[in-house]
Design goal:
single chain; 273 residues; alpha+beta; two-stranded antiparallel ribbon; 8 strands
């Protein structure tokens, strides 16, 4: 079923004419097919749950279910019950609670990338609960967990250092190394992507907390992204590992925005970069 559905998506994408003519969908579809198979292998997900449990054992504000190994198979995933409220339902919670959750989500994402070098790359809001009594973030669903190669981690560290230091030349160099654009990408495409990245770091460099409830940055990114996507001559796809990291970043940004959290993002970044 997975293989058939992914093949159909590829066929529909081609005949629709919506994609740039130079875009090779093959690697994207292959990766989608691979991940969907992994996410339906509960023995694999159980192993990742056990792995993350060990990696997060010394993080006091994060809790995970415990795997019931004797009951888990490739088609059945059994674990302990952990109580909590779905994070996305806490948009009306007191501001300090929402701020705490936002900070926990951002710290978790940076910890996965820079300290653990393994990331749960599915930012589905339903994968996170909050235990208000313990003040703990509850993590669920590790089917999309994947190792992040050391060179990619180093590139992201260099990217953040360049962005926070307002070094646009270094930012351009590292952005190309990561794969946000290619060496032969058109100059105006490079400039458009760099402007988007520059805007993000401009917001992070601002003193004090970042207010995720302020739609200014999100609206700016949406307009710029739509303009770039509408350009039929832009057909660059970053490496798969980068796409998965960016998916997690985007998901955490949207979840923090849903909560209206106010977070000292730069302070958290400073712990890891």
């Amino acid at each position: 079923s997975i293989d058939s559905d992914v093949t159909n998506v590829g066929a529909l994408s081609k005949v629709s004419g919506l994609l740039p003519p130079g875009l090779d969908m093959g690697p994207l579809l292959d990766e989608a097919r691979k991940q969907l198979h992994e996410e339906t292998d509960y023995a694999r997900e159980g192993a990742q749950l056990r792995r993350f449990g060990a990696l997060m054992a010394d993080v006091p504000d994060v809790v995970l279910p415990e795997l019931a190994e004797d009951l888990t198979t490739e088609t059945v995933l059994a674990m302990s019950f952990v109580a909590g409220t779905p994070v996305e339902e806490l948009a009306e919670a007191p501001q300090d609670v929402r701020d705490r959750i936002g900070a926990q989500l951002i710290d978790l994402t940076l910890r996965e990338l820079f300290a653990l070098r393994v990331m749960q790359t599915d930012p589905n809001f339903a994968n996170f609960l909050y235990d208000a009594g313990a003040g703990q973030l509850v993590l669920l669903d590790f089917g999309a967990a994947r190792d992040i190669p050391g060179p990619v981690v180093d590139q992201y560290r260099a990217l953040m250092q360049a962005g926070l230091a307002e070094d646009r030349a270094a930012l351009e160099r590292v952005s190309e190394e990561i794969g946000f654009f290619a060496a032969d990408s058109a100059a105006h495409h490079k400039a458009a992507i760099l402007d988007m990245i520059w805007s993000v770091f401009g917001a992070l460099r601002a003193p004090g907390t970042f207010d995720f409830a302020d739609p200014t940055l999100q609206d700016e990114m949406r307009v710029a992204g739509m303009a770039l996507g509408a350009d039929r001559n832009f057909a660059h796809v970053p490496p798969m590992d980068v796409l998965f990291v960016q998916r997690k970043f985007a998901g955490m940004f949207l979840l923090a925005a849903r909560l209206g959290a106010r977070v000292d993002v730069r302070g958290i970044v400073g712990r890891y970069v």
